[in-house]
Structure formats: C-alpha cells, structure tokens
Amino acid sequence: MKQFQYVHPASQAAVLDAIAKPGSKIIAGGTNLVDLMKKGVMSPDKLIDINNLPLNTINTSPNGLHIGALTLNSVLSENSLVLDKHPLLAMALKAGASPQLRNMATVGGNMMQRTRCAYFYDTAMPCNKRAPGTGCGAMGGYNRMHAIFGASPQCIAVHPSDMCVALAALDATVTIAGKKGERRIPFTEFHRLPGEHPEMDNHLAAGEMILGLDIPDNNFSKNSYYLKVRDRQSYAFALVSVAAALEIQGGVIKQARLAMGGVAHKPWRLFDAEKFLAGKALTEENFNKAAQLAMLGAKAREYNAFKIKLAPATIAEALKHAGGLV
Amino acid sequence: MSDKKPIISPDSEGISNGTRRDFIKQSSVLTAVALTPGTVVHAASDHMDEQIAAVFEKMPLKMEVNGKPHSLQVEPRSTLLDILREQLDLTGTKKGCDHGQCGACTVHVDGHRVNSCLTLGVMVNGKRITTIEGLAKGEELHPMQEAFLKHDGFQCGYCTPGQIMSAVACIREGHANSEGEIREYMSGNICRCGAYPNIVNAIQEVKAGGQAV
C-alpha cells in the first residue's frame, strides 16, 4: 500500500477543510477503501478519518427517520425503529457483506463503495472508471456480473450495494455538506449512470461529504421484501436483487415501490412498473406484467444474457413475497 | 495505475518520473526532516506540516490487547492484523486472503467482531482488542475452543482462530438460534477443508450449554 497521511479531525469544519485538498479521501469503516488501496486501485495521499463526528444517530424527525452517515450497517439492520418502520432496509442490510464487515461498514461508506467489476480491480486491465480513457475490459470480456440497464460504451459496471437498493425504493433523501453549506437530494439522484464519465460514481462534488439520510414515513412496512439472487447462499454480491414495497388497501395495491440491484451503475428504480401496479389486484399475472414492463430497454452482453430472464423472475417473486402470496 | 507515483524514491529515476511539484515537495520534506529532531517532530504532530507527517511520521497507537495495554508506533498504512502478528507476535490471528473475503483474521474490537486485515491500526487507537490468544483463561480453554476440539470443527486449522472468534460473537449477538441462522451469521468465515457441519455442531452445543461466552 502506498504511504499516506492520516488525520483524525475533531469537527465537521476541519473535515471539510481537509477534504478540500486534492488527493484527500474520507475514511469511515474502510472496508472497501482499504481493500482498494491494498490493490493499488485507489491511492490517496491523505486519509481523513471522520469517526470523531457525531453522525451515528438514528432518530425520528419531521422528515421521517433520520440516519447518520456513520451509523454502522450492523447497528442499522437491528435498530428497532428500522425494523418497525422500514423492515425492507433491514432485510437489504442483512443480505449484504458478512457480519464482520457490517460491524465496520457505515451508511455513508456503503453509498460510496466502488463497483466490484473485476476489470476495475485489476490494475493490469483497461478500465475507464479506474483510469479514464484506457477503455473497458468488461465490454468484450467476461461480463457475467455486469449491467443490463443504463450502461454506456465506456462502462458496464454495476453498483454493488444492497442497502442502496432499499433506500432508493423507500424515497430516502441524502443530506450533503460542503463549504457552502448543506444540500439535500433524492437518494435516486445520488448515484449516476456512467455516461462519458464512469470515473464518477455519484453526484457528490469535490469537497463535499455525506451527513446522513432521511426516510419519509410510509405504509409499506407490512408488505415489503428484499430478494437477492447470488452465486452462493450468503456473502456474495447480487446477480440480481429486488426491493419491493407495497401499500395494500382492501386487497388492492394503492401504491408500489420497486428497485433493482446488480443490473445498473446505480440502484435501478422501476418507476413504470410501480405506476402499472397502482390500483391493481394482488395477482401473479399483474406481478408478471409489472416485471415485463420493468425490463423494457434491457440490453445483455455476451455473458450476462441470463439476467434478462432472471431479473423479471426475481421482480415477480419479490412482489409475491411482499404481497403475501407466498 | 497511471497516477501512482512514488512520494519518496531513493534513486534519481523515481524523482525524474515525478512532476516538478513532487520533486520540490519531496526535497523540502527531506530537508525538513533532516533538520528537525525527532522529539520536535513528535511534539508538533498535531500541528505539523502535513507533508512531513505524510511520509515519515509513525503514529502513536495505544490499545489494549487481551487485557494488556500496548503503546506502539505504527505507520498509518499498517493494518491491525499486521500489527498483531508482526509487532506483538500474536500470530494466532491468521492472514488468509488479506482482503476481507475469508474471515481468517477475525478479532473483536471493543467486543465486536471485525476483519483485522481491513482495519487500519491507527483507527483502533484507545480500543480494546481480543484475539484468539485472549479467549482461554490460563490453561483452561474457552468453551468454544473445547467444543471445536470435541466436534472436530477443523481439519487444517488455518481458518480456526477466525472461526472461533466469529462463533463466540455469533452467540453473543444472539444469532445462534438455529442451524440456518448460524450458517448465515458464520458466512463471513470460509473453511476450505469444509468443516462447516462440525463447526455448526460446536456452536450449537455451546449455545445449548448456556455458558457465558
């Protein structure tokens, strides 16, 4: 690992000062960053440890449920407010990583984690995300894990998070701090598609940091489900995952929320399928139709064509669980 | 990677590959360190020129390991795993993949299991670490160690320290209530010999025994 300077500022103002300098990188849990630094994929000159900041609270607020950026994934997944109000988020968190990693990984760090594309990790291979302009190794390579939605000729990597898929479905907002003050953006607009700049995973500007999240109150807690399909039963990244949340009134779907993981450069919200389901009966046929709608525009590469069949089947299955049909 | 550059290179080639700005930075750091007594550098560590600290300064690390306080000097890039093994000679904690994928390096930090290979030493300053060496009370093995022996919860034994640290945490966390739950909450510990059924049996026995772990 390349040498770096380590600082441990005591205040948010000091953190914002420190990250304003090029080559600086925030570290919280470090589960992804330290790994990438060992591999030489990332090599910051300076690490800013933000664990002194009071950002690990979970509390109810006028905006719903507030979750501080330094909240550990393990703590969040077992928090009584989360289990009560947003069990979908707890399910997604428990589907991610291992208990040891969840004891280290923070909410903000989970959002900031990089793709697990093998070509991004292998510094001997071309990768427009790691080294812009060098090409994409995955495009003509072994792209079994890669995107079927929203990819660009420059990058077909996927975002690896489970937590973020649930947060996208639950209409969370992100609070971001910079030198000019704070701003809030919808969670679905935090991560970005690769386009011409796959080196940028999200819309966090240089010198900004994540303070926390808010999840608005909803009526999805009784009918939500996170279904993750992977190569082994636990502790593996998703081939496809689906967060499904339904508000049901008198046997009819009042509104639905759906998002997919493992298929795009960002958590992939299924707005068209959600609209279709509103006002529909809880039937397998409706779930299958919603799943087909969600697949419009999907594009497979050489080794990930199985996702074109797997994804709609996973959507329908997640909806069946959420709707209580299984 | 294209932007990978040596901060300090002892040979002229390294410097010639860098930019002029790097060269000036490097030379001034060298000069500053050469002219500054170590004690002064250390005393000023909170306010010192960032460039000096970046390259040369080892940082103080105080932590309690298995009940014993330690005061060390470590590079910021040293992982807790390497510090335990190389500086404290506690080689019970194993380096498997070194990338957080196998769990062989599992230790407890303030009572919670973590992958020590992904934990920077400087980030556990002031914390309490427990390794496999800290479980037994003298000659008396921890109940989980006894159970692994009884149930043959290993073959080659390399993953075993991590398995046992994780198994103890699994019970403490309240996630050992069924075979399925144990398998899920032990999924961060890989055993290439495939001793999983025996590991699950060992955990179930300790859990059923109701002893404090």
Question: What distinguishing features does this structure have?
Answer:
heterodimer, A: 326 residues, alpha+beta, Uridine Diphospho-n-acetylenolpyruvylglucosamine Reductase, domain 2, Enolase-like, domain 1, five-stranded antiparallel sheet, globular, B: 213 residues, Ubiquitin-like (UB roll), DNA polymerase, domain 1, five-stranded mixed sheet, TAT_signal_bac_arc (chain B), oxidoreductase (chain B), TAT_signal (chain B)
Question: Tell me, what's the shape of chain B?
Answer: globular
Structural class of chain B: alpha+beta
Helical coverage of chain A, percent range: 25-40%
Strand order of the largest sheet of chain B: 2-1-5-3-4
- Overall residue-averaged pLDDT value of chain A: 98
Radius of gyration of chain B: 22 Å
pLDDT below 50 for ≥5 consecutive residues: which ranges of chain B? Answer: 1-52
Task: Give the topology string of chain B: H per helix, E per strand.
Answer: HHHHEEHEEEHHHH
Q: For the terminal residues of chain A, how far apart are their CA atoms?
A: 49 Å
Specify the CATH architecture of the largest domain in chain B: Roll
Continuous helix count of chain A = 12
CATH top-level class of the domain at 224-322 in chain A: Alpha Beta
Span from first to last CA of chain B? 47 Å
Radius of gyration of chain A: 19 Å
The major beta sheet of chain A can be summarized as: 5 strands, antiparallel
Strands of chain A, total number: 12
InterPro entries (chain B): 2Fe-2S-bd, 2Fe-2S-bd_dom_sf, 2Fe-2S_ferredoxin-like_sf, 2Fe-2S_ferredoxin-type, 2Fe2S_fd_BS, Aldehyde_Oxdr_Iron-Sulfur, Beta-grasp_dom_sf, TAT_signal
Pfam family, one (chain B): Fer2_2
Organism (chain B): Mucilaginibacter pankratovii
Keywords (chain B): Iron, Metal-binding, Oxidoreductase
Notes on the structure:
The complex is a heterodimer of chains A (326) and B (213). Chain A is of the alpha+beta class and 326 residues long. Among the domains of chain A are: 5-51, 2-Layer Sandwich (Uridine Diphospho-n-acetylenolpyruvylglucosamine Reductase, domain 2); 224-322, 2-Layer Sandwich (Enolase-like, domain 1), CATH 3.30.390.50. Chain A is built from twelve helices and twelve strands. Chain A has helices at 12-19, 33-39, 73-78, 80-85, 87-95, 99-102, 107-112, 118-121, 163-169, 271-277, 284-294, 306-322, and strands spanning 5-7, 24-27, 46-49, 58-61, 64-68, 173-178, 181-186, 209-215, 224-229, 240-249, 252-261, 268-269. In chain A, β11 and β12 form a beta hairpin. The longest helix of chain A has 17 residues, at 306-322. Chain A is globular and about 60 Å long. The mean pLDDT of chain A is 98. Chain B has three domains: 12-55, no CATH class; 59-132, Ubiquitin-like (UB roll) (Roll); 143-209, DNA polymerase, domain 1 (Orthogonal Bundle). Chain B has helices at 12-17, 20-35, 38-43, 50-55, 80-87, 143-150, 160-172, 179-185, 196-209, and strands spanning 59-65, 68-74, 106-109, 112-115, 128-130. In chain B, strands 2-1-5-3-4 form a five-stranded mixed beta sheet, covered by helices on one side. The relative contact order of chain B is 0.10. The interface between A and B is large, with 39 and 40 residues.
